[in-house]
Amino acid sequence: xxxxxxxxxxxxxxxxxxxxxxxxxxxxxxxxxxxxxxxxxxxxxxxxxxxxxxxxxxxxxxxxxxxxxxxxxxxxxxxxxxxxxxxxxxxxxxxxxxxxxxxxxxxxxxxxxxxxxxxxxxxxx
Length: 125
Prior knowledge:
Blueprint: E1 2-4, H1 6-13, H2 17-27, H3 37-46, E2 53-55, H4 58-62, H5 68-78, H6 83-89, E3 94-95, H7 105-108, E4 114-116, E5 120-123
Antiparallel strand pairs: 1-2, 3-5, 4-5
Helix pairs in contact: 1-3, 2-5
């Protein structure tokens, strides 16, 4: 499991999907390359930040062959879940009403990493 602070990662990466994925790979120790000086600076800015977001199987997600935009949308949506709720209920789904004003549900249904029904978004990893 990877715990992360999406807002901080988004800020230091300036929202660039490829950088977000690289930083998450470094955070969970699965990057095949050593971090560059720039990446080390960004990672340093993440230290000590609260980590309420989580991905249960980050290695599978971050090393998958899915479209980079689908992975980044997945990471963003996963950050809307509450870790404490997961610990209590063992439910990693996200109610759709939480993201209705942020994301277009019909477009999200095309993301192969998500399974969306009437009221919940279910995450593959």
